[in-house]
From TrEMBL:
It catalyses: Couples ATP hydrolysis with the unwinding of duplex DNA by translocating in the 3'-5' direction; ATP + H2O = ADP + phosphate + H(+). The keyword Transferase does not apply. This is Bipolar DNA helicase. Pfam families: DUF87 (PF01935). Residues 432-445 have a biased composition (Basic and acidic residues). GO terms for molecular function: 3'-5' DNA helicase activity; 5'-3' DNA helicase activity. Transmembrane segments: none annotated.
Length: 445
């Protein structure tokens, strides 16, 4: 790993440095805009120097590992670090996580359960200022559980007729599919937003379909309306994201994976388009022109359970946008993508090859290891399997492959400062104190 001078830098969140600064993703970084990931893990598993990830430039990151070994936890650490950056840098960045499991709303609470472990790292519990969005139709269900959320919806007009067919699992060439495509495209051509009632009215105005097909189409759209995700106008980007904010988009109430993929595709496409425009404004500014309006921030888009959105062997509604735009082209306009999965073998192979940073927690499935091995860079002196064997079974340990500096690192990820909602529940946890007392009594007899 290239080493940089560490003259003025003082780590904000702990981590001891010995005269050098180790930054993944940008060896030219002189100590600004750093995300503290953890510490090097020596062969005897002792803790070494601190390891940081550059946040000044965009990155494509893949986090993988078997269930329970730290994927979501590591994503949470990165979100924390972005939220705690210096205001001058933080204000130019925005973070949004697609939460498929409903576990990231807890980040607004301090991690009181690991106070001792945090103290050993020179850290203290601290919650984040987050905004949690859920499908508009599910807001009341969350508020009844005393979870403060905001409504999120997608404009009905954002989906084409073909996309609606895929969401509803209808063949485009079937009589019903033909009616849906014809109806949606007719409304979209008018150039304004429309409601489900407008769609249903348009369906019954169609003179080329029979009453049975029209009735089926009406039933489908009335069912979609009940999902609570789509509306006439939709949530604007300015409501959802802006410089310095951390946003959680909880899509866990949506059971239909096609719907989740459609939502991710639309959002990612809007982020990409806004960043392209912001990049043009930046270039004009560099040439001496005065920028117009407020610049859209550089976005860090986090997606948990990534195999749902970029699956191997088939295309989801989000595949093209995430791979062809965000992964292959997103870094140039300033869009970072962080994907996490426990099933690398079920992930589109381009995700592995296009990521400039791989964070690999423990893996034991041969298929998953082979999926990562297939894109193993030449600078890795040993096989991935060998590195994973050396890493052992410690939770939180990670093998990091940094394609930017062409280097490999064994790191122990730091503890979370905010509450982690992704741990596995245990039937014993509510009675842990009583159980410990009982065991103490038994040992004394």
């Amino acid at each position: 790993m290239p080493e940089g001078k560490n003259k003025k830098f003082r780590p904000v969140f702990g981590g001891r440095l010995s005269g050098t600064l180790r930054v993944l993703g940008n060896e030219e970084n002189n100590g600004e805009g750093l995300l503290f990931l953890g510490n090097y893990m020596a062969l005897d598993h002792s803790r070494g120097a601190a390891v940081y990830l550059d946040a000044l430039k965009p990155h494509a990151v893949l986090i993988c590992g078997k269930r329970g070994y730290g994927k979501s936890y590591t994503m949470g650490c990165m979100l924390e670090e972005l939220a705690f950056l210096h205001p001058a840098i933080k204000g130019k960045l925005a973070s949004l996580i697609i939460d498929t499991m409903g576990i990231f709303w807890t980040m607004s609470y301090p991690n009181a359960s690991e106070t001792g472990r945090l103290k050993n790292w020179g850290l203290a519990p601290k919650g984040l200022e987050t905004e949690v969005f859920v499908p508009a139709g599910k807001v009341e269900a969350y508020r009844k559980r005393n979870i403060e959320v905001k409504p999120f919806s997608i404009s009905i007009r954002d989906l084409s007729g073909s996309q609606w067919c895929r969401v509803l699992k209808i063949e485009e060439v079937s009589p019903l599919g033909i009616l849906l495509v014809r109806t949606i495209e007719s409304l979209r051509e008018k150039g304004h937003h429309y409601s489900f009632e407008d769609i249903i009215s348009e369906i019954f105005l169609d003179t080329r379909s029979d009453p049975t097909t029209k009735g089926a189409a009406e039933n489908y759209f009335r069912a979609v309306k009940a999902w609570g995700l789509f509306s006439k106008e939709g949530t604007s980007l300015s409501e959802l994201i802006s410089g310095g904010r951390t946003t959680v988009l909880d899509v866990s109430p949506l059971e239909n994976e096609n719907v989740c993929a459609a939502a991710v595709s639309i959002l990612a496409g809007r982020f990409y388009a806004e960043r392209l425009e912001a990049r043009r404004s930046y270039e004009k500014k560099q040439m001496g022109e005065k920028p117009e309006g407020k610049e859209f921030p550089m976005v860090w888009l986090f997606i948990d359970e990534a195999h749902i959105f970029v699956p191997a062997g088939r295309e989801s509604l989000a595949s093209e946008m995430l791979i062809n735009r965000c992964l292959r082209q997103g870094r140039q306009p300033g869009l970072s993508l962080v994907l996490a999965t426990q099933r690398p073998a079920s992930l589109q192979p381009d995700v592995v090859s296009q990521s400039d940073l791989l964070i690999c927690h423990r893996l034991t499935s041969s298929d998953d290891i082979l999926a990562l091995e297939s894109s193993r860079p030449l600078y890795m002196q040993e096989s991935l399997r060998t590195y994973l064997k050396k890493m052992g079974s410690e939770k939180g340990a990670a093998l990091i492959v940094d394609d930017h500096s062409e280097s490999v690192h064994m790191v122990r990820i730091r503890p979370r400062r905010s509450w982690h909602g992704g741990g596995e529940p245990s039937a014993l946890e509510p009675y842990a104190e009583e159980r410990n007392e009982e065991m103490t009594v038994q040992r004394s007899k």
